Amino acid sequence: MIGIGDAIDRVRAAARILPVERLALANARGRVLAEDVVAAMPLPPFDNSAMDGFALRASGNAIAAGSGFAIDGEQAAGDAARAARGEACEIMTGARMPEGFDSVVPVEDVDVLERDASQRPRRIRLKAEVAPGQHLRRAGEDMPAGTLALQAGIVLDPFACMLLDALGVVEVAVRRRPRVAVFATGRELVADPQRALASGEIRDSNGPYLEARLVEAGAEVVRRATLPDDAATFVAAVREALAVGVDAVVSTGAVSMGRYDFVPEALAMLGADTVFHKLRMRPGKPQLFAMLPKGVLFFGLPGNPISSAVGQRLLVEAALRRMLAMPDETRWRLPLAAELRKKPGLASIQKAALRIHAGGQVRVQPLRGQESFRIAPLREANVWALLPEEGERFAAGTLVEVLPPSHMQAALLGSEGA
Ligand code: AMP
Ligand code: MG
Predict the structure, then answer these.
(1) Closest C-alpha among 299, 298, 321 to residue 312
(2) What is the Å distance from ligand 2's center to 294 Cα?
(3) What is the pLDDT of residues 348-366, one digit of tens each?
(4) pTM attached to this predicted model
(5) In the chain, which end has fewer C-beta atoms inside a 10 angstrom radius, N or C?
(6) pLDDT (tens digit, 9 = 90+) per residue, 45-70?
(7) Cβ contact 103:135 at 8 Å
(8) pLDDT tens per residue, range 162-176
(9) 281-307 average pLDDT score
(10) Nearest residue (CA) to ligand 1, atom 15
(11) 102 closest CA partner among 128, 80, 131
(12) The pLDDT value given to residue 261
């Protein structure tokens, strides 16, 4: 039996980085960037006004309150460059600064002394002093051209896409999505939710769960099936998945010590090399990881719903991250809200709730009902708490490792380091 850290290292070492594909930015949302993006233009692209008001020429000196100006024309957002003329110009937010102007006084900071026939201001007087450069957004002030805008390995979430859209990026290089097949095993399983359960049967909840998590984690689920406890059927299903081309196969069930736990036998029939089977962890001790022919990864997750969810989160997602050339995940370390107990000698991964307390502290609440068949506590859970092998009692306040439900969420809270 090996430990979780060792298991994750072996999974990472076995996973191969996937090829790059080029997509229109609009089709690349949620994908992982495969090449750095350098800003080809400055943001903002030109000096412009931050306010609706009047553009003035301060030329490095403050303009005193009470100063009066004649207004010469207007500059609206979208207007092209305007040659230098006049002493003041009406200007709108986002409008390009006319040549020779460098400061903006907001409309609320002036008295309009005179208007023309169409009610446009012709003369104004400043109610307050104008500092040179005020309310001016300079070209490149947000991001100069040539800046590393986004680094390879990040997820193109809406924040990242906002930046790329502003920069006018047309096409991005992303990693191909890992192609995964999912097989839920167990003759007790009923995949069709319309079908009434016969005696001894249960619904397949692992299959849909894994599919949802895999997609969330950046993968493409190319096959999903619910299979009986029969090695030959399983082998045929895996062979078919290999034939359509997959990077990984994930199965649940049939990896424990029961009479019908046939996955090791099926792997032998497939000519797979088992890398590990059983980890020093709870739940999910019988996790199995093997290499199928042609470098395809095989994850044999145990059937209990929490055991398979944990295997997906710790092992499968570590592999997906490596395939997508994302940096290895850093775990959050947060204080326990209450004492937590576990069995010594086995790492423990527990359903937990990250909560923000009234005083503003974030704490990890261990949840009742840690058995691997219990899915009801997931209603309250929003993270996994990961406790090391050593130790039995962890006092309230102890910093523990915490994992969000999907590795894609792991960057949400930036860490300031140890
Ligand atoms: P196994 O690992 O095959 O021995 O299954 C362990 C437990 O998980 C048994 O109680 C199974 O009925 C249950 N189980 C297995 N597969 C699933 C599944 N796909 N959905 C829900 N429960 C499952
Ligand atoms: Mg089973």
Answers:
(1) 299
(2) 27
(3) 999 999 999 999 999 999 9
(4) 0.95
(5) C
(6) 999 999 999 999 999 999 999 999 99
(7) yes
(8) 999 999 999 999 999
(9) 98
(10) 303
(11) 131
(12) 95
Give the mean pLDDT of 118-127: 97
Residue nearest to atom 17 of ligand 1 (CA): 303
* HEC letters along the chain: CECHHHHHHHHHHHCCCCCEEEEEHHHCCCCEECCCEECCCCECCCCEECCCEEEECCCCCCECCCCEEEEEEEECCCCCCCCCCCCEEEECCCCECCCCCCEEEEHHHEEEEEECCCCCEEEEEECCCECCCCCEECCCCCECCCCEEECCCCECCHHHHHHHHHCCCCEEEEECCCEEEEEEECCCEECCCCCCCCCCCEECCHHHHHHHHHHHCCCEEEEEEEECCCHHHHHHHHHHHHHHCCCEEEEECCCCCCCCCCHHHHHHHCCCEEEEECECEECCCCCEEEEEHHHEEEEEECCCHHHHHHHHHHHHHHHHHHHCCCCCCCCEEEEECCCEECCCCCEEEEEEEEEECCCCCEEEEECCCCCCCCCHHHHCCCEEEEECCCCCEECCCCEEEEECCCHHHCCCCCCCCC
Q: Quote the tokens at residue 140.
A: 């490149």
Tell me the average pLDDT across 322-346.
95
Rounded distance between C-alpha atoms, residue 316 and residue 254, angstroms: 18
Other CB atoms within 10 Å distance of the CB of residue 342: 21
* 394's tokens: 């962890």
Q: Rounded distance, CA 43 to CA 47, Å?
A: 10
Residue 89 neighbours by CB distance under 10 Å: 25
Question: Going by DSSP bridges, is the β-strand pair 362-366/347-356 parallel, antiparallel, or unpaired?
Answer: antiparallel
Query: Which of 284, 278, 388 lies closest to 5, judged by CA?
Result: 388
Distance 184 CA to ligand 1 centre (A): 8
Within 6 A (CB) of ligand 1 lie 184, 186, 188-189, 202, 204-207, 252-254, 256, 258, 302-305
List the structure tokens of 340.
């937590």
List residues, by chain if needed, whose CB lies under 5 Å from ion ligand 2.
Answer: 186, 253-254, 303
